[in-house]
Amino acid sequence: MIEQHSIVFPQGTVVVLQLQNPPVNSIGSAVRIALTEALDRAINNPDIQAIILTGSGKFFSAGADIREFNTPFAKQKPVLADIISQLENSPKPTVAALNGSALGGGLELTLGCHFRIALSGISMGLPEVKLGVLPGAGGTQRLPRLVGVEPALEMIASGEMIDTEQALKWGLVDKVVEADLLTEAGLLGLEAVANFQGAPALSRGAVSEVVAPDVFEAARKQASKRFRGCIAPLEAIACIEKSLVCDLDEGLEFERERFRLLVDGDQSKAQRHIFFAERAATKLPKITASSPEIESVGVVGAGTMGGGIAMSLANYGIPVIMLERDKAALDRGMQTIRSNYAASVKRRKLTDVDMDRRLALIQPSLRDADLANVDLVIEAAFEDMDVKKEIFARLDSICKPQAILASNTSRLDINELAETTSRPSQVIGTHFFSPANVMRLLEVVHGRHTADSVVAALFKLAKRIEKIPVLVGICDGFVGNRMVSPYTREAHFLLEEGASPAQVDGALRQFGMAMGPLQMGDMAGLDISWAARKRLAPTRPAHIRYSHVADRICEMDRFGQKTLAGFYRYEAGSRNPISDPAVDEIIESCARESGIERRVLTDIEIVQRTIYALVNEGARILQEGIAQRSSDIDVIYVSGYGFPVFRGGPMFYADTVGLAEVLATIEQFHKVHGELWTPAPLLQELAQNGGKFSDL
Ligand code: 3H9
Question: What is the pTM for the complete model shown?
C-alpha cells in the first residue's frame, strides 16, 4: 500500500512514501492506515529531514475510494482529513511529488503538504461534484487559500481537470519538472529545512481576498446550467463562500457537514451508481474470445450519422473511407464534416493542424471496391430493411473475408441482415447516437450468429474511441428505442387526455430530463418514428389504444425542427419550441374522435405515466435478457437519452422510489388504462420479495 525508501543527499536524507494501490491509487481504509503509520515513523525518525509523498504508475491518486462511501463514517478512521493535518503539522517539510494525475482526495492530500512539485503533462482536478459530492477533505477551504477564490471556484464547481501549466500559473504547484521528479522533490524539501518553522503552509484565518460581489452568483448560475438539477456544485460553492468568513477550522467543519449530507443523499448515490455502471457496462463476463484488431473502417452513407461516425473514428487516428452512391450527397457530407471541425477550431477546441490531420484520415469515395481491404464497415444508410439488405449483400461480395460488417440501425433486425451475407458470424449492430461524434453511448447489438470475437473487437474499438459500449440483444428498437416507444406513447396519450405539449415537456424537464419527449421527437425528426409505426401498423392489435396525434402531425409534413414545425413550431435558425394552436387543434380532434374527455393533469401524473412506462419496459427487457444488467439500461438512458444522472437512470430511480410503490402505481394505471400497462413479471416478482433491480 505504501512503499518506502530513502534518498541520501549531501544536505540530508529524505524519505519517499509511495502510494501503491493499483489501478488508480485510490485512498481506501488500508491505504489511510498504512500512510498514517508511515508518516508517524518518518516524523519520529531523527535520520530523516524531509518527507516526500508520491504515487505510482499513471496516478498520484484518483482520490478517496468511492466504494467506501456507503460505509458509516465512524468506521473509516483515520479519515483523510486526519492524514492531511498530520502532513500539515509535520515538524519536517512535506513535499507532494505528483508523478501522475491527482484527483479529488488525492489532490486534497497534496494541499496538506508544504510544497507541491509536478511532472510536466499530468492533470489535476477536484471532480467530486460529478459524483454528487464536494471535496470533503479540505479542498473547498485550502484551495481558495492557496490559489485564490476564483480559480478555486472554477476548478471545484466545474469538476474539470487542469494541466501543469495552469497549475503553475495559479500557484497550485510550486514547480514543474520534465524528469527526476523525486530528486527535485527531495532538494525542494531539504532546501526548506534550514528555515522551517514547522508551521502550516496555509493561512488559518479566513481568506482575506477581496472578491467581486457577483462572483458567487455567477458561479451558481453557471453551475446550475452545467449540472441542471444537481445540488453538489451549489453546496461546493457555498463552502468556498464560507472560506471568506470563517477561519480554516470552522470552514473545514462546515465542509465536512455538507459533504456528509451529500454522500448520504439520493443524488450522490445515483451518480456513484452511474460511475460504476458505466465501467461495468464495458465488461463482457461471458465473452473471453480474443478480438481481431480494427485498424481501418469503411462507413456507408455520408448523412448525419455516417459523417458523425466517420469523425468519431478519425478523431482517434483511425482511417475511414466514407462511401456514397451519389456525388452530391458525398460532397455535402464532407462539407458538413469540414464545417463541424472548423467550428471546433473556432471554439479553440481543436488546432488547425489537428483538424487537417483528422480530415486527411477521412477519404470520400464513390467506389464500392475501395472498401475491399478495410477491417470493419459500418453501414449508416437510410433506415429501411430492403435498402440495408441490398447494401449488406453487396458488402459481403466486396469486403475481405475477415472484415466485420456492422449496421448502425436503431431498430431493425440484425439477424435478417446477417442472413443476406455469407459471414453471419461477422455481422453485428453498432447503434451510435446523434451527433455520433459527440454522444458517448454505443449500443453494440449481438446478433444470433455474431461471434464472441467480433463483439470483443467492437468493445475494444469503442474503448479506443472513448465511447461507452453497452451490449444489447435483438428486438425492435434494442434497449434504448424500445423503451422510448412506451415513453412517447404515454406522452401522446397525455396530450389527448388534456395536457399541452409544453406541459408534458415541462414536467419532464422539471424531473430532470434534458428535454421532454415531444421536443426530443421534433429534434430527432418525426418521420423516422412515423415510418416505424407504419411498418408495425399491420400487426398492431385493433383493440389496443393508439394515439393518432403524431401521425396527423406528420401527415401535415410537420417532421420537427428540420421542417420548422412538429409538436411545436420553430423560427428559422432557432431550436426554441413555440406552442402552436394548430397542434392543439389536432390534439383536441384526436381526443374527440377517440371519445376521450379532456381533464386537468398534474405534473406528477405526467412524470409517473412516462417514467414508469420506461421502467416497466426496462423490466421486460431485463427478463428477456436483451440487456445484460439493469445498470446497463441506466447507462443507456443517462448517456443516450438525457435521463438525469442525479436520478441514476430509470431502473435505479425505480429502486430509489421503491419497487412496491412503483408497482402499485402501475397496477392502478393498468386498471384505468388497460393492457398496455400490464405489470412486467420481473417487476412484480422483485416488488413482492422486497427486491431491487440493482440486486440482480
Ligand atoms: C473524493 O476523493 C472525496 C474526497 O474529496 C473526500 C473524502 C472524504 N475509487 O475509470 P477507469 C476504479 S471522491 C474507487 O476504468 P481510466 C474504477 O471503478 C473521488 N475506485 O480507468 C475501475 O474499476 P474496475 C474523487 C475507483 O484510466 C478502475 O478504477 N475522484 C476510483 O479510464 C479503473 O478506472 C474521482 O472522482 C476511485 N476514486 O480512468 C475520480 N477511481 O476496473 C474518479 C477509479 O473494477 N475516477 N476507480 O472497473 C475517474 O475519473 C477515472 O476512474 C480515472 C481513471 C480518470 C481516475
Answer: 0.94
